[in-house]
Fold:
Amino acid sequence: MFVGLLLSRYLNMSVEGQEAVTTVTPGQYILIEGNDDEYPFVAKLLKFFGDESHKQKKALVQWFLRLSEVPQNKKLLLGRSPHPQEIFYYLGRACDNEINAESILGTVDVRQDNSPDTLYVKLSWDTKAFNVLDPVLMQDTPASTPPKPALPLFPPCASPTATPVSRGPVRRALPTPDPTVMRRAGSVSDTRATMSAGKRSTLEISANDLLLCLSQGWATLMGVGATKKSELIMMDCSCLFPVGSRSYFIYLDVIFVVLLTCVPVLRLHVSSVPESLPCREQEFQDIYNFVESKVMDGTGGCMYISGVPGTGKTATIHEVIRCLQHASDMDEIPTFRFIEINGMKMTDPHQAYVQILQKLTDQKVTADHAAALLEKRFSNPAPKKETTVLLVDELDLLWTRKQNVMYNLFDWPTRRHARLVVLTIANTMDLPERIMINRVASRLGLTRMSFQPYSFKQLQQIITSRLNKVKAFEEDALQLVSRKVAALSGDARRCLDICRRATEICEHSTSHPSSAGLVRMNHVMEALDEMFSSSYITAIRCASLQEQLFLRAVIAEFRRLGLEEATFQQVFVQHRALSRVEGLQPISVSEGLAVCQRLGACRLLLLEASRLDMLQRVRLNVSQDDVLYALKAVRD
Amino acid sequence: MSKRKVKETHMPVGECISQVQMILRERFCHQRLPEKPVGMESQHKHLLELLRRTAVHGESNSVLIVGPRGSGKTMLLNCVLRELLEVKDVNKNVLPVHLNGLLQTDDRIALKEITRQLNLENVVGDKVFGSFAENLAFLLEALKKGDRSSSRPVLFILDEFDLFAHHKNQTLLYNLLDVSQSAQAPVAVIGLTCRLDVLELLEKRVKSRFSHRQIHLLSSLSFIQYLDNVRSQLSLPQDFPDTNFYDEWNDDQSVVDVLQRHYNSSKDFRSLHLLLMLALSRVSASKPAIKPTDLLEASRVCMVDSKANILHGLSILELCLIIAMKHLNDIYEGEPFNFQMVHNEFKKFLQRKSHSIHNFDKPVVIKAFEHLQQLELIKSMDSSTAKIQKEYQLMKLLLDHSQIMEALQKYPQCPTDVKQWAIVPVLET
Structure:
C-alpha cells in the first residue's frame, strides 16, 4: 500500500465543467463526487498512491460527514439544529478510505471556527455519538496521522486543556444506550423488566395513592402471597415516600388490588413490548443469521416471511434488528441502516420509493424521481456505503399491474454495489407463486420462512412470560384461553386481548376489593362469550314482535317455495296470515317494509336495493335453525 | 326557565303550554341527553371504564358498539363522554374526534376532518403529504406534548363504522387500530354500527388488530317497562314553574292499546318519540293536555300506508288502469304486463260493464300510464328502456291487492261500477 506512496505528491487534474486546472496537495480539503450533486462528499486528502498496476491513481482520505449523511435516528444526538455549513470529522471504520483520484471534484476550505460561508468542523462522529474534535487530528501533518482504521477512540471528554474553549454546548449529555439494558443476557433483561414495571406502576397510581399504600403494605402483600414483582414495586414506593399515618391503613386493600391488577393488565396490552419473544427462537435465529451474514459480507439478499396475522412476524424482525444494532454498537459487526415501510400505510405502491428515499437521505421528491435516485444509489459504487436493511411489511399491497415496484425491490439487492438486504412480510405462504410474475418471483429467491400459528402451549407460554411470573391467572383459565385461540386462529393478539378483558372482568366482579384474586375460569368464560359468541340469536330474541313474526314468515315462505329466497310480497302474504293466527292486527305494507328494512339493517336479512319496493328479494343471513331456536326460546 | 320562587305561582295557560312544548320537544328531538341511559346500565359501566382507562391511564383501546337503529348507541356514547369530561383533569386532556361514515366517504376526507377537529390545520398548512400514514403519523406526533413523552389521549368515534370498512384497503381502520395496538399515542377507537356482522367486513389484518370488544345494545324491555318509559317521557320535571299545571299534566292516560301496537312493531325510542311528538303538536291553549284521541290520531298518522295514500289522489282513469293491472296479475299469476294488455283490459271493461265512464283516447291513457310510472306504482322490468316502444315495455305492479281494495273503499265518490269491477273481473265470453 505504501509502495507508490510518494510517486505523486502533486497531482494535476482538471475539474469537470471548469477549464481551470486545480492542483490538489495532500493536507488539503477536497470535494468528492457522491450521490448528491449539490452536496458532494468532503474529505481531507492524506496522500496519493498508485494501485498495484500503476494505472489508476488512488488517494487516501480522511472523511468528513455532513449532517444529512448521519443516519436519521442518530441526528437527534446532536441536540441542536446544525449549521448548514457544519461538517463532522468521521471516526467510524465502516467506510473505505481509499478513493479513485478521478472522483475528486475540487478543493474546499474547511475551518475549525464558526464561519458563515466556509465549511467548518467542530465535532467528530464515531457512528455512535458526537464528540468534541481533538485539534491534533486537524493539524496539517498527514504523516503524523496514523492510518485511519487504527484511530484510537479517545474518551469523549478528553482533558479540558486539550479541548478548545467552545462557545455553545458542544456535546450533549445524552443517555446512550446502556449496555446493561440490552437484552441478550437473561439476567440483564430482568433488571430492565423491573425498571419498566416500576415506571409503569408509578404512572398508574398517582403519588397520592402511593402515599396511602405505604404504611403497612408489606403485611397485606405477604398475607395474600404476592409475588416478587409486586414486592419490588412496593419497595419502590416505600423508598419514595415517607411512612404515612395510621389512618391510611384502611386504604391498603384498595391499593393492593390496584397494584395487583393494573400490572397484568398493562403487561397484557398488545402494545407493551415483551422482554423476549418466546416460541420464536428458531425463526429468530434463522433471520438473525441471514441478516448478520449479509451485513458482515457486505452483500445483499432477499427473504420472504409469511404467516397469518398475529404470529409475531414483525415483532421478531424488530427483535433481530435490535440485537444486530446492539452488536454493531459493540463493534461486533459493521454498522447498518434499518428502514421500514408498510404497504398498508401507503396510499399507492409507488409511494414506497418516496418513503425509502426519505428515510435514507431525508429528501422529499416525487415517486418517479425517487425511483431514479434509488436506482442510481443502489447500482453505482459509492465510497461511503453501509449495508441497508429494508423491511417491507404487507408486501401484497405493493402489487401493481406491471409489478415494477416489487421487481425493483428484489432487483436492487442483486446489484454488486447495492449492499441491500430486503426482508418482506405478507400473510399468504404462496404469495410469490400466486401474484408475482416469473421474473419477480425469481429475484425474490427461495429464502422463505413461514411463521406457523401458535399452538396452545406456545400461547400459554407467551402469556406466562408476559406476566413475568406474576400469578394472575388460574392454570385452567389460562389453558382455556390458549386452547380456544389456538383452535380458532392462533393469533397472539387475540389471546392477549381476551386475557386483558378477563382481567378487567375479574377486577370488576368482586364487590370487596380484597377478595379480588386470580382470574378464574368464569371470568375467562365471560370474556370469551363477549368476544366470540354470535349475537344473532340474542338479537332475534330482543327484536320486536312484528320483526320476529316477519322472520317466521320468511321461513314459512322458504319452506313453501323450497327456495332460500323470496320476494317481499310473498313474505308479506305469509306475514299477514301469521298475524291473523296470532290474533294481532295486520300491519300495513309500509309498516311491513319498515320492519323488513330494520331487519335488513341489522343484517339478519339480506335485502336487495330498497327501490325495488315490493319486489325486492329477501334472504336470511342466519341459518333457519338458529332463527327457529331463538324464536322457540322466546315463546316458551 | 324561571325558577320557582313562590310555590303557588300561576301562569297563563298559554305560557305553560309553550313551556311544556319546549321541554318535551327538547326531549323528543334528542337535543338534550337524558339524565341516565335507561336499560343499559352494564353497557354504560363497561364503556365508561374502558374510556376512562384511555383518558386517565393512557391505555389504548378499541371497541365496537353494535345495536339496531334507534337503540341508543349514540346516546349511550354521549352520556359516557359527558360523564368522562366531567372529570377535571380529563376534561383538558382528552380530544374527541367524531367521524361519520356517511360524511367521510373516503380516507382522505376522513383525514382532513381529523386534522380539522384536532385544530391542526395551521400546523399542517399546505404541507404536502406523500402518504396517508405519514399524514396520520404527523397528526399523532403533533399531539405529543412539548417535552413530555406522554401525549394527549384521542378518542376516535367512528359513526356508521361499517361504511369505513368499504374504504380502499381499509387504510384508515388499519392505521387507527395499529396505533391502538402499538405503544404510540394513546387512542381509543370507538365504532358505532347497526350491522351485527360487521367483523366479517374487516380484512384479516385489520381484524387481528381490533381488540374484539363489542358492546351490544339490544333492548330487552318488557311492555311494562316500555309503558313506564312513556310515562316518564311525558312527565314534566319537578321544577316546572306552575305546580297546578304540573299536577294536571302528569295524570296517567289510558292509551295502552295504541302503545302496545307500537311496541309490537318496534321497541326503539326514536319511533316512540315521533309518535309522541305528533301528539304533542296537537296540544294548544284550548286543549291543554294530551288526550287518548290525540295519541290514536298520531298513531294513525304514523301507521298509515303511504301507497294507499297516493292512490287516493289518483284520477278515476288511473285508478281504472290499476284495477286492470290487478286483474292481469290475477290472470297471469304475477307475470309482467305491458301497456297494450292493460289498455285491452280497460277497453273490455268500458264496452261491457261501464255506465259512468266514457271512452278515452289512447294518448290520454298513455299519459295516465306514464303518470303511474312516475309515481313508481308500476315499475319497468327491462333495464334498457330505449329500444322497446313504450306500449310494449314490460311492467310490474308495485301494489298489493289489499292496498288497492282499501284505497277503493276510501276513495271519494268512486263510481260503483268501478268498485264492482275491482271485485269481479270482466269475464271472457
